[in-house]
């Protein structure tokens, strides 16, 4: 799916990805692996349970019964099951890369500029005139293709091909796999892989191409038809991509054009693009140290949390924790920093500098552990070049420095 994963304080990164559509292909892959993994586990448990039962009933030894079972082909069956799971993983991985590559090609052909291409945790980014490899993680997603929009008015920017590119790439490779499978002689394992490439490619195309929402998020097909009709959402889409590109180049949030952070009017809390714009706006407020404005907007977002997806809810709670600490509302911060939010923060702390900010703020203000807070600050400062989004790192360090001087 087209992923708009911007990097506003690392928070916006998350929502931006989902604003354009969560990588449903990665969820599909996980479901596939879970299904086949369950089959293999069931087979192993069945053998483990059956052997002692047969042995006790027949009076034979465990080894004798085990050898008889192997003689009837159980081991080859398990081997085939393991090979099937491996080929499913390979096919899902290849179709994921092909899907994101489709977005890349379609975007470049319609005037977009390359920003980054991520598969799992490997993130290839553009820094000036060079390409660099960085590590980045987002739970629930398997890949992202991020581009910067053409430098033209929003109503002249085409978003249809950008969203359609991934689906078209899956369809083309699925058809090609079928042709190769039927008209080219190949080993049995390769034929099986072609079948899975066709099946999974078709499934990806349907899941992403048929207009629908999952968890409140529009897929590529729905974005393709809606963005051109919904100008406020289209503006959010383009702003998110623009901010992401600027963040990767290290442009400070305080120097970015204010128009990129304007909220849609009228506002719709059920529209993921609109919610993404909120997190972008809050991040910019924090960059200007406008704590009360950020608190008021986050409070409104929190009051409407039932209207948007769980990931956004976690991000809102995380940012509320930060802003409450910045404004001296420590008791309220503790309420927002639940076990689930803490787990979410810890999970992404190694690749998202904003999560380091949360850990530092909690250590300093909620746990009273200044040495730990100072250690987190120094570690982030020492590793700042490892992060893909330099604007996020600079902002996180600035806010950490402010906390250390004002708490």
Description:
- By secondary structure, the chain is α+β, with helices and mostly antiparallel strands.
- It folds into 2 domains: about 20-225, no CATH class; about 255-405.
- It is built from 16 helices and 6 strands.
- The protein has helices at about 10-20, 25-60, 60-70, 75-110, 160-185, 190-210, 220-225, 230-250, 270-285, 290-305, 310-325, 330-335, 340-350, 355-365, 370-380, 390-405, and strands at about 115-120, 120-125, 130-135, 145-150, 215, 215-220.
- It has a 4-stranded antiparallel beta sheet, with helices on both faces. A two-stranded antiparallel sheet has the order 5-6.
- It is globular and about 75 Å long.
- The two termini are about 45 Å apart.
Q: Helix and strand layout, with pairings?
A:
Blueprint: H1 11-20, H2 24-58, H3 62-71, H4 74-109, E1 113-119, E2 122-127, E3 130-135, E4 143-148, H5 160-183, H6 188-209, E5 213-214, E6 217-218, H7 220-226, H8 231-248, H9 272-287, H10 291-303, H11 310-326, H12 330-336, H13 339-348, H14 353-366, H15 370-382, H16 390-406
Antiparallel strand pairs: 1-2, 1-4, 2-3, 5-6
In short:
It is built from 16 helices and 6 strands. With 407 residues, it is α+β, with helices and mostly antiparallel strands.
